[in-house]
Amino acid sequence: MSCMKRLCHETRSHDRLRRTLAVCLRLSRRLLLKMSEERDAAALSGSAQTEGEEDLFVSAMESPEAARLSAEDISPSSNGPKAEPMLLDDDPDDLFAEATEEVSLDSPERQPILSDGPSPVITPVTPVMISSRADVFDRSPDQDEDEEENRDTFDIQISVSDPEKVGDGMNAYMVYKVLTKTSLSIFSRDEVCVKRRFSDFLGLHSKLASKYMHMGYIVPPAPEKSIVGMTKVKVGKEDLSSVEFVEKRRSALERYLLRTVKHPALLKDPDVLQFLESSELPRAVSTQALSGAGILRMVNKAADAVNKMTIKMNESDAWFEEKQQQFENLDVQLRKLHASVESLVCHRKELSVNTASFAKSAAMLGNSEDHTALSRALSQLAEVEEKIDQLHQDQACADFYLISELLGDYVRLITAVKGVFDQRMKTWAKCQDAQVMLQRKREAEAKLQHANKPDKLQQAKDEIREWEGKVQQGERDFEQISKNIRREVGRFEKDRVKDFRVVIIKYLESLVHTQQQMIKYWEAFLPEAKAIA
Amino acid sequence: MTSISEDIDLNNDASLVIDIPDALCERDKVKFTVHTKTTLSSFQKPEYSVQRQHEDFIWLHDTIVETEEYAGLIIPPAPPKPDFEGPREKMHKLGEGESSMTKEEYAKMKQELEKTVQVHEVFLQRLSSHPMFRKDRNFQIFLEYDQDLTVRRKNAKEMFGGFFKNMVKSADEVLISGVKEVDEFFEQEKNFLLDYSSKIKDATAKAEKMTRSHKNVADDYNHISGALNNTAADNNTAFKKHLEKCAEVFEKLRKVEDRMASDQELKLTELLRYYTRDIQAAKDLLYRRARALADYENSNKALDKARLKGKDVAQAEENQKQCLQKFDKLSESGKKELTSFKARRVVAFRKNLIEMTELEIKHAKNSVSLLQGSIEILKSN
Prior knowledge:
Chain A has 16 helices and three strands. Chain A is mainly alpha-helical.
């Protein structure tokens, strides 16, 4: 907070901004804390999903492979991974809208691909991997019951504050203070304060996504990168737009963390705990767009897009079809609503500027007026308009932080939700492919029955057993992911409704406040107008 | 809707009462119905109702401007041309059986119509309340003549005469400021008017921008309301009602905001616009007086020359006497006009500022009760 104040002080010409930001900080923080308080969420009692001592790197090692898993296994039925780089050359932007990743022209503030971090390498699939995850899957029924019982004891507050610039020039970056206050037992202390930079948040999200998305969990998306915004900050421009940018980002990071810990499974995740508690965090190298990991991400997104087009799923469950359609519609509607609110923010800012400009002009007119009483009244009018201009500014801030940013978050969340449905499709496809494979192996074995090659026959029988296992696993996975998605969607819808209800009321209250202030100002002016004689 | 005109002592005098009870917006013209009630003997009938177009008003204004007799008076400024660009296109399309107007476009057109009626009405009422203008022959024709005035208007000479005069006038600021003023009253007025006119022009422009932004915000509320309704359509029952209620709130907010913006426009922006034009009319008076002074000084020089040469002295003396008379007359009447102008301006500002403030308070209070009521409903759901 003090660093923010310092930034504000240095922008001497921006008294208004200082005031406005102070209001917004209070508003946004109060709102977010209230939102997390009012929401019921799964509480956590003892049962941590993963033993706390689990080595970060082991779990991190698992995750890139998990992600690669899907790309590899789809290979029989579509263009293999080798084909993707070629597709990338063919202007991926057109075919694969989802495959574009925002290129961050962040300076090489870190060396690309440190060896101490998780190295994203395509490793061959091993059955062992699948079964270990199966354990995790199987534990979820218990989790359900826990959630139901312990809803009322969710108690965690997170704030992101005090953005501080570290370093100079293009190597500079912002560091934020992350303060966690909680009474939950999985945390080692009641109150923890750590310093994190933006790529740390991205790294956290990347890990969580690769761990949980394929299970059908809706992982809250991280805030977006911004080349322009960050460049201005690095270059040292402490002007209005870069201060606003930092505040916008700080607020987005805070909302991101709150949403992440609201998720009962994610809250217990060791990566999340480490992020919130550990004073040193291994640098998340793989978040850079042009790093090896970044390119791999793009490749995989392209693969996903291709797969989406080629998989024709026989939907046996009408619920999923219905929900997918609903989310498609919701996506369109939210985007429209978001656009309208953004327009409102823009116009209200304009109104504020124009009111200030009119105020100055009215003051000049008052000076020029030779009738004394009228002159005084005009000067008073100018003062009123100036105060009203400030009101408009504050309201525009509320428009933005309360509604516009929330809608933006939800637009991104819906993308995550759609992603989870896609994961289910992929799981289904995998299951199908396994069945096809099994069929082939059986046919091969049948053929070998008549040939006289006992070794090969044995091998064929082994393979059949292997693929029978895979088919079973695939069916289990599919069932599990379907179950998870149902639960996640239910949770998402509940939260969405609650969020909107809370926010709308807060927003209307902000409008009430603005109007009441206006009444005050105009009522003070009225006698001045009447005094013109 | 109270008009700017009520501050002027119009219609106090029942002997000549004028109003524009309605206006018709046709394809690309506005037809005003000018209604007159009079007890004056100079009129043939006690009541008239005629159709006039904007160009008729301009013709009337220009003939008055060019009347030498009125040189010492502040000529009421001509009403600006009705601005229906957007709505006009729509009207055109309507005529051709194409699209229909949305509620918003219709409301905007109505607002524009309100404004233009007000400003044309005030122009006539200024004339009718002035002891000299009300007796003007052309004014009477304007009010009485039950046929189209187009033929009279089409007199090209008159039109061009007016245009030429406007061109010359722009050099006047130099003339006015260059005049060596002996009379302290006029010296003060000159300084005041020159400065004030630029300030009020600026204030008008800024007020216009502010009002436009305000209307944009109201429009956004409208779009948000629509978007919320769309989202509601797809939702389950409980949340759907909630969203529909929110959409309703924004729709109502929009109406209030729109009303706030138009009232601000009518009371503040229109007031400033009007007085920008009126200040210009006062400056025109100063110009005419300065011209007369220049003429007088020239006639003095000519007289001296004539006396030197010993030729045409009587003529020069006569000329000089007339110039002096004219100048004195202009100064005397000018002083009266400018003094009453100031009084009128102060009264108008006072009235409009009070009315605007009261309306803003009223609308804000409406907003608050609407919002608080909605918050209660939304909370209880």
